[in-house]
Design brief:
- The complex is a heterodimer of chains A (275) and B (527).
- Chain A is 46% helix and 20% strand.
- Chain A has 275 residues and is α/β, with parallel strands linked by helices.
- Residues 247-252 of chain A have low confidence and may be disordered.
- Among the domains of chain B are: 1-66 and 336-364, no CATH class; 76-182 and 385-413, no CATH class.
- Chain B is mainly α.
- The longest helix of chain B has 30 residues, at 153-182.
- Chain B has helices at 3-30, 33-50, 83-94, 99-102, 108-128, 153-182, 195-212, 214-228, 236-245, 259-266, 278-300, 306-314, 324-340, 358-373, 376-381, 387-402, 404-413, 422-435, 438-451, 463-475, 485-496, 504-526; strands at residues 134-136, 142-144, 186-190, 317-322, 457-458, 461-462.
- The model of chain B is unreliable at 57-72 (pLDDT under 50).
- Helices cover 64% and strands 4% of the residues of chain B.
- In chain B, 50% of the residues are buried.
- Classes of the chains: A alpha/beta (275), B mainly alpha (527).
- At the A-B interface, α3 of A face α3, α16 and α21 of B.
Chain lengths: 275, 527
Amino acid sequence: MIKRILVGLAGTPLTPVAVRHALELAGRHDAQVTGVTVVDVKRLTHIGAAPIGAGGVAEELREHRMHVTEEHVEKAIAEFESACKDADVKYTVDREMGDEFALMTSLARYHDLMIFGMRSIFDCGLGVDPPNALGRLIGQGVRPIVAVGGQFRPVRRVLMAYSGSLESAKTIKQFIQSRVWPDLSLRIVTCHGDRDEARRRLTEMAEYCGAHGFDPETEHLAESPKHEILAHAAEWDADMIVLGNSVRSYLMRKIFGETALHVIQHADRLLFLSQ
Amino acid sequence: MDYAHSSRSSNTFLSAAIAIVLVAYILTALAGLPQKATDKIRHASHDHREAQPHDVGTSEEHSPGEYAPHVVDAEHPALWMVIPFALLLGAIAVLPLIPATEHWWESNRNRFFVAAVLGAVTLLYYLVLHEHPIEAHWLGYDTVHPSKTGINWLLGGTVFANAVFNEYIPFIMLLFSLYTISGGIRIEGDLRAHPLTNSAFIATGGLLASFIGTTGAAMLLIRPLLETNKERKHVKHTVIFFIFVVCNCGGCLLPIGDPPLFLGYLRGVPFLWTFKLWPAWLFVNACLIGIYYAWDHFWCYPREKPLDIAIDETRTRGVKFSGVWPNALLLVGVVLSVALFDPKKTLPGTDWHPWLYLREIAQLGFVALSLIWGSQAVRQANRFNYHAILEVAALFFGIFICMQPPLQILGIRGPQLGLSTPIHFFWLTGSLSAVLDNAPTYVVFFETAKTLGGTNLVAGVAESLLIAVSLGAVFMGAMTYIGNGPNFMVKAIAEKSGIRMPSFFGYMLYSLGILVPLLIVTSWIFL
């Protein structure tokens, strides 16, 4: 059941796409949408040391960053409000100042789904997003997240990447249980060197989905998931990829999260990210 | 108050101030004061020269060996007197990073306050605690002895004169005149952003840098370069190579090119000596431009979207120069004033020694002419202001004073540092220049090299070591955004134009990957 959707208004070209997806889902589930802008003044104005003679330039750069951010934020809010009114969707606007991650963690408690641009969550066109922002959000418990690319894609075909890990199983379960999008064509893929083990995984997950009323296809990919998933998604023309993620630390990232990071950095279609 | 109005007010105030200084100088000249000072310098230099080892390639042209090691009685200031100098450099590096001091440090008044307090501590040491003779450099050479009792006004005054009258004033006047005059020139244009066009921009900047200063060349060319490339998406590397070449490596052919070289000139390096650096200059800049061209031609340009390339090919605008008259001519005047108006040497073809501070007065005159004759609209278009030069003036006031004890210590303890080869001097000068301002760094290693003596002396420094110090200070300013003023200015302008420039450490990946290997080869070939 989706009743409250949070959408990040970053003021980038991805923002209208995120808003459109949010409104489409809100209309379908009779949900309320919260458009949130976050300006982290501390991060935006952190220029670092300047050489002798460049202090004035550093100050101008700080002002420029704040000015551009304010412009983008106001434009994004105006477009969001206009789109909500046109779609006749209940909405609120939340203007936040401070640490993005702490604020999102707080807001995530009271929303069922978060929608952000894939590679520009808060940067307002300045390119100063923290590295791996999506991964950090998920790591801090902001989930589930739908990350959108540059183009609106109605969600009909969903590729679910199953690594056999608890995290990826939880992500798929959450996707299946939430029934955010109806009438989906599902395909479960797994990458494993042992064909029998892969088949066992796929069968078990397909049975789980079947118990929830879905009838997914299954596919065993022999190569590395890091490269196979995106290629397979493109080949199958998936509109969305469902992906588990465990980016909590460097070690965990090395063990579990490389694939998720690679997909986040290179995907050109929607991602459903949870655990 | 809008920008145009505040700019006009600043220029009016400055023109009036310059007029007052010019009138005051004329009055002192009528009273014969600068002439007497020059006579004193001339005689003192002659006496001093007699006592010094002979420099290579210098005769009457420039006072040879005038700053050669001349330890009065082998007693230096207390070692702890390097603390004010270290504190000042530390404050410049650290205060902008501390949230509590970040905004406070933005004010030039506060910067001057810190510099002046630390300078005052240094002077206080000489006034009260220092008990040994020191050398006086201003108005020729002399040895100043401490008084037996009471406050050493003479020692304190000598240190102040050495720092401020002998070095700070000529230094800041040159930077001010180059900064102000070149700020009246503007180049606009939107050419086709081909790899060859960008390479030509960078090469032109690399050539200009030595003649109008790295800051002037960078500010002149970065805007048309960015305008030319505005349709392209892969531009970051172009800005980085521009910083390498125009903001740093191009500026080593004349003392005007980079502030440390001018300090070398003030310490007795002949004006044209820096032309001897041309083989390393040519090698480094040609390699950088060659690497850039290959990178852009084979990697970045082919990755541009066809639509962007099509727009770039069609949306062009010819190069337009504004403010060239009278400013280009005035810049030539500044160069000539530096080259010719040195009170320690005669004006070529005459036996006349220019008066003390005539060089600086000439430079101020050129600035006044630039403000009067130059286009105000051009300065407004450049968003020209005096913030940068005021910041330099505020901080260097303290740097030059606080630098005196470390220099005197190095004058005696230099040989104990273990530095002996050009390679040592090149890499150590360069490494510090990458993170500190390269002007004081140059002076510190210049003085250290001077204590080692050797053959083929230039201003008292073995020529091979002077080459190493000069190249290290100039080339390795490119290692970080903070290595040289224009690096950061160009980065900021590029970012404001929408280019996502790398972070501090991201930039260092480029300099470590490209510049360091190139400099290793350079040091291997030329040092």
